[in-house]
Amino acid sequence: MPSPKGIWKVITASSVGTLIEWYDFYIFGSLSTIISQKFFPDANPTAALLSTLATFAAGFVVRPFGALVFGRLGDLIGRKYTFLLTLVLMGGSTFLIGLVPSYATIGGWAPFLVLLLRLLQGLALGGEYGGAATYVAEHAPENRRGFFTSWIQTTATLGLFVSLGVILTVRRIVGVEEFTAGDGWRIPFLLSILLVIVSIFIRMKMQESPLFAKLKSEGRVSKNPLKESFGHRANFKMVLLALFGATMGQGVIWYTSQFYAQSFILTKCHVEYEQANSIILIALVLTTPFFVVFGALSDKIGRKNIMLLGMLLGVLLYRPIFQQLYEIADVSKKAVVVERRESNPPPHVNSGFIQVVTIEKRFDDGTKLKTTLKEPAEKKSVAPMMTNEVRLAEKDKWKMVGLIAVMVLFVTMVYGPIAAFLVELFPTQIRYTSMSLPYHIGNGVFGGLVPFIATLITTIPGTDHLSGLWYPIGVAALCMVIGFLYLSNKIDTDVSD
């Protein structure tokens, strides 16, 4: 095993690349409302947003295939070069998304090219995580594996944090109009190429995992990782148990607490874009250290109980927490103290063109509401388009930060220990393949589909703003029961074979 200084070099090199891959993967979701306007027909904004969320989800759906392809490579040729390859693939795909012309320029080719590049992103991420987690675990001291692998776990949330930070910074520098209506939104995608170059330089200096190097020197590397992982009954049983007893529930908790929460406060609560993302950013800063706290705690009391408790809290508290978020932004019971109305162009100018009416209201608690109506200047049978934008009062903003932070705590409980848990289930020669598949099905399919399925459910007649939560609650509850009945809380300290 490496020295304490050596293990931190391993963690840093692995984490920097993984963080950049998550950044690349997340900026698509963080910019989904803008992407829906750029790459899809704008006749139906809801359909365009759902198409964008479906494209976002497609990147998750192909992650298991990436896990199979790159997991096999990782068990055949080594951890280092495999996740170096995934980094290049992810960075190149992200950079190219920033170059794709809009729907207005190339028509149907725009969504097709974006979908293709999104699929390549998903394949790359499918190979990244298993390699990074395995690499760190195979360097870590046996009794501190949960602690050291939890640093890799922070990179997923930090990747979201960095993506939001870059987006908000670029938005301020270039201006809101250029960022949303012009090409400013492309800059976060294009910047990724610089981050990838730095990470490649760091990873080129990494050494192979000592456990894998030992296997290779002894000639015990797997000849067929796929067959050994899924063709042997005992190992395949552990793959299924990892999926249905752990990663499936962990995935929906993660994506509900961070991504669906972000989508919910933007599209259901109508919180102003910059304020909504700053709320998410602050909550992430407050809670990210708990990935390490729960990872370290799992070394002492086991992985199972911590992960299942996180799922239970999500099942019990998601609906009341999301209802609180909704009520905080609800202005229907607040008293208006100032109201201002503007028309652009004025009704008597350019009649026959679209008229934009802006109504701004300030309420007695400091909340502000901006309503924009786009309607024909001459009365026609065309329904006006209306958008609302709520700017929360300071005290309400912090209430929302607190609620999001509580939900991200659930994420730290299920996600902090899971890398060590997965590593300990499988032998070294097939670990990359065996752990990657259940992880990416649980996260990529069950978790990654949360924003799309939950949003889609709320469009069904008879549903309300909370109806979409039944999907993650149901999946987490099922996983929790299976995990409680069949998972062991024992920590396996032997990962060498």
UniProtKB/TrEMBL annotation:
Keywords: Cell membrane, Membrane, Transmembrane, Transmembrane helix, Transport. Residues 10-491 form the Major facilitator superfamily (MFS) profile domain. It is found in: Cell membrane. It is a multi-pass membrane protein. The chain crosses the membrane at residues 7-28, 48-70, 82-100, 106-126, 147-167, 187-204, 238-256, 276-298, 305-322, 400-425, 437-457, 469-487. GO terms for cellular component: plasma membrane. Its main location: membrane. GO terms for molecular function: transmembrane transporter activity. This is MFS transporter. It comes from Paraflavisolibacter caeni.
